[in-house]
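User:
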Amino acid sequence: MITPDYLRMMARYNRWQNRNLYAAAGALADAQRRADRGAFFGSLHGTLSHLYWGDCIWMHRFSGSPKPSGTIADSPRFRPVWDDLVHDRDALDAAILAWAEVVDPAWLAGETRWFSAAAGRELAQLNARLVVHFFNHQTHHRGQAHAILTGLGARPADTDLILMPDIV
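Assistant: Predicted structure:
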């Protein structure tokens, strides 16, 4: 389905785009980031906090890193302080990149089992499919964040994968 090279490319894309969106969001007033914009997780801050929480839970499943506290319903408030969210996001993106460097095809062909509180039951999926979901989930919510930023007059940089610089 996918290769370790795909995973590494998407980990780089994740970091590049998070830095892009966080730079644009950092230029806004905190009240603008926290105002409900009608997104699924309400505000820009809530959306980015949810995305951070979601990435933490997937990295817990993939690599055994610490499991984040709370539930998906709590995720918009998981990192309530903007500066903490910015710092922790950058650290998590570095951890995702480091993890991507050591993933091998055998792990991708394997399976992960976990209890999904959102689904209310145990699930099992091929790791390759879960990795695709992981990166697709990021892109989905970053798209929402981008729309919020654009609506607030912020100008995030390019998002096209084909424009990603070689060094991120």
